[in-house]
């Protein structure tokens, strides 16, 4: 989401994550442990406790869903959902490889760009298994749904 401002020019983008309770607990514990992780023995203990990620079977079955909404000062709203493969290893890797192929083929201008600014807003849809669903939203006015 960090790059969204650079792709869109929208200065006030917010990002949320729907996380199950177990993930929220792990994230909270991580914030508590972070200062201690700078100490060598603690870091070594944490590194030894790392377990392999999900199985290939679970990764293949996992789907990722992303929802976005934009509203203007007149209350007009645009919403869309992206649906795709597992985000951590599959979707991110496939998209990064697609961007690298395009860069090697000289399909982007020089200089810093986001994937969307370099290859267009539909670049994400070039990744196998990724689809977009445009959502018709009810009218909104001043942040209130009617």
Q: Which features would summarize this protein structure in a list?
A:
single chain; about 150 residues; two-stranded antiparallel ribbon; about 40% helix; globular
Give an overview of the whole structure:
There is one protein chain. The protein starts with a helix and ends with a strand. It is built from 6 helices and 5 strands; from the N terminus they run ααααββααβββ. The protein has helices at about 5-10, 20-35, 40-50, 55-60, 85-105, 115-120; strands at about 65-70, 75-85, 130-135, 140, 145. It has a 3-stranded antiparallel sheet. It is globular and about 50 Å long. Helices cover about 40% and strands about 20% of the residues. The chain has 2 domains: about 1-50, no CATH class; about 55-145, no CATH class. The longest helix has 18 residues, at about 85-105. A hairpin with a 5-residue loop joins β1 and β2 (about 75-85). With about 150 residues, the chain is α+β, with helices and mostly antiparallel strands.
Short structural description:
With 146 residues, the protein is α+β, with helices and mostly antiparallel strands. It has helices at residues 4-8, 21-33, 40-48, 56-61, 87-104, 115-119, and strands spanning 63-71, 77-85, 131-135, 140-141, 144-145.
Task: Produce the secondary structure layout.
Elements: H1 4-8, H2 21-33, H3 40-48, H4 56-61, E1 63-71, E2 77-85, H5 87-104, H6 115-119, E3 131-135, E4 140-141, E5 144-145
Antiparallel strand pairs: 1-2, 2-3, 4-5
């Amino acid at each position: 989401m960090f790059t969204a401002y650079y792709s869109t020019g929208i200065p006030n983008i917010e990002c949320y994550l729907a996380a199950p309770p177990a993930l929220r607990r792990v994230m909270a514990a991580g914030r508590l442990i972070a200062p201690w992780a700078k100490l060598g023995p603690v870091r070594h203990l944490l590194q030894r406790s790392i377990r392999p990620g999900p199985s290939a079977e679970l990764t293949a079955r996992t789907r990722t869903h992303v929802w976005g909404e934009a509203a203007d000062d007149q209350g007009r709203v645009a919403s869309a959902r992206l649906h795709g493969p597992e985000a951590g290893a599959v979707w991110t890797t496939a998209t990064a490889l697609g961007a690298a192929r395009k860069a090697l083929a000289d399909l982007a201008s020089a200089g810093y760009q986001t994937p969307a600014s370099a290859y267009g807003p539909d670049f994400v849809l070039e990744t196998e298994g990724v689809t977009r669903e445009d959502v018709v939203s009810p009218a909104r006015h001043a942040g209130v749904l009617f």
